[in-house]
Amino acid sequence: MSARKRSALWNHFETEGSDSKKAKCSYCAQVLALPNGNVGNLGRHMKSKHPTIPLVPERQALPPSSSATSPPNTTPSVPALEQINLEPLRPRYNNPQPTIRDFAIKPLPPRRAEKIDNQLMMMIAKEFHPLRLVEEEEFAKFVALLNPSYSLPTRKTISESILPKQYEKLLQITKNKLATDSAAVCLSTDGWTSINNESFVAVTAHYISHDAAEIKLETVLLGCIKYTERHTAENICELLKTFMNDWQIKNKVTAISSDNAANMIAAVRAGNWRHIACLAHSINRAVQTSLGHISSTHVKVKQVVEYFKRSSHAQTKLKEIQKQLNVPDLKLKQDVATRWNSTYDMLTRIVAIKDAVIATLALLRNDLSLSTDDWQIIEQAIPILKIFNDVTTEISAEKNVTLSKVSPLYKIMSNFVKGLLRSAPNTPRMPQIQSLLTTLDQQLDRRFAHLESNDMYAEATILDPRFKRRGFKHDRNYETALNVLKQRVGRISQDPETIPRSTTSQSQAEAPVHPAGNPSIWEEFDREVAGLRPENSIAAGIVEVDRYIQEPMLSRQGNPLTWWHQRKEVYPHLFRYMLKRLHLTATSVPCERIFSKAGYTLSERRSRLASKKLEQLLFIGANAHLLKCEK
Asked: What gap in Å lies between CA 587 and CA 592, rounded to an integer?
């Protein structure tokens, strides 16, 4: 036997051809080359095509000799020999002996390893894990069990290679999408101070993305950067200009949304941009001012909650009494001074387990017990505060059109409060609650009544097919806004770029054609009509607005963007103008959410994270939805 045939692989292959430079698999008949007599191809073939067949098997024990059952010295006859199948049988095996090759782990292809690295980076960014996660022993064991071939990158590799590379890739994708998909952009901005006492400023962009298939409201983070300058109006204005120039959206910005801080408002005005006061922040200020009328009860409730939070014995006793009274096992909630809705949550929760709280305090701290008047004030305040909590939740959605809701929601809140005030003579109510209602009514009118006269708010409301006229509290504001809208859409209709290709072609087809040398009796009339076309194009835009107003209203649960997408050919000029109104965001909540994520990312476990790395992690986490899924 030749040296090369001593390999156990030849138990599964036969030589092919006279020169013995090829071998044929005994199982699938595939012919493989033997370069320089090397059997490496045969081994790879067995591992990839027939992995369950052992390379070095043990032979199955031979069956017992047939001599015990056959007559001795019996010679088979020739015909019997002829019936025996002399074709060599493939040996059968059991208990195969594994080889070192069987335990060898194939390294991952570079492309596959890169995909896993990127997904690991995405998990760290979106789920707020520390970079040193890859150095944790149990995580490494977990990954090794999932895929022994994958080698975890080091913390340094993630920080200096994978993170910057992923950031740059996503940065280009985000810039390209913002440049190509947006007709108009609304910015929102806010500030934040980290646990390291470092100041950050975030800027998000909001726009409507649409193509032939779909339309949707997009929100992207332009950046959350460490800011070392003083937060003066001038400095913030320059910072916003820098963002606009870097992202090449200077001519697309229609408005900037922020809280009601004086420096933010002054910064926006200094840049000659339109300002949108955050509705959630305005509601917070209005309710906080009104809550002063029930401050005595508010303080008492806070003391009760703080007592249960500090005392584990009191907390245990409260749970026991809840079980005895068969009431839900709920914990008390503590409010936050800057968030009035946390006060609403605190009051709602203490009323939900009122009996258990009263019983527990009677046993442990009777001096903290609330009076009957206190409980009445709380119970009367909750349904009043609920509507403001619901409005805040409604307006804080990032994926929904929001500015068009401001006027309708002001109308709802105002009518609700005024209705309660009118019912005062017939409704028993604590004096503190009556004062709270009066202040709320004044605050709502002072902060929101003028918004119906603001063209951005008014036009957004009209262009939302769910509201139109019904979104206004005062008809005169609606009529004024509608007339302005008609004029603006009329001017847009003079721009040939807004006219659909089919409409332009039709107009050209309808132009009169007179054969040369054969004047028509209509020639003078046609010249007169042609001279009227500019005026008619303006009228066409106005007609679009009138036709839109006559359309049935969309249900409140409907999607206004989808409605417009389905009718963009019917109202081409209005559609173009709609893109510059329904993208406007009524709150700066998206920026506040960025800072909530920043707080998670820069927790105590990651307090030493460099600010530049924090910026990159936040950018990836916020804009990850723009990455196409890699298959």
From this structure: 10
Tell me the CA end-to-end span of the chain in Å, nearest whole number: 49
Residues 426 and 319 in one domain: yes
DSSP state letters, 15-78: EESTT--EEEETTT--EEE-GGG--HHHHHHHHHH-TTS-SSPEEPPPPPPGGGTS-TTPPPPH
Average pLDDT over residues 322-350: 91
Is 309:350 a contact under the CB 8 Å cutoff? no
* Pairwise CA distance, residues 624 & 166, whole Å: 10
Domain boundary among 12, 28, 58: 58
Q: Is 351 contained in some domain? A: yes
Same domain, 289 and 334: yes
Q: Are residues 333 and 394 in the same domain?
A: yes
Kindly tell me if the per-residue pLDDT of 78 is higher than 80. Answer: no
Q: Are 583 and 207 in contact (CB under 8 A)?
A: yes
Please tell me the total count of domains within the chain. Answer: 3
Pick the closest to residue 565 from 243, 215, 292 (CA basis).
215
In a domain, residue 147? The reply is no
Residue 201 per-residue DSSP state = E
82-117 pLDDT, tens digit per residue, is 444 444 444 444 455 555 555 556 777 889 999 999
DSSP state of 454: S
Q: Kindly state the average pLDDT of the residues 187-194.
A: 86
Q: Which of 460, 452, 395, 393 is nearest to 184 (CA)?
A: 460
Contact 262, 415 (CB under 8 A): no
Does residue 465 sit within a domain? yes
* Count, residues in the chain: 631
pLDDT band with cut points at 50, 70 and 90 for residue 518: low
pTM: 0.75
Q: Which residue range is the domain that position 42 belongs to?
A: 1-58
Which residues, listed in sequence order, are joined to residue 450 by a DSSP beta bridge? none
Tokens 């709320």, located at residue: 440
Residue 80 lies in a domain: no
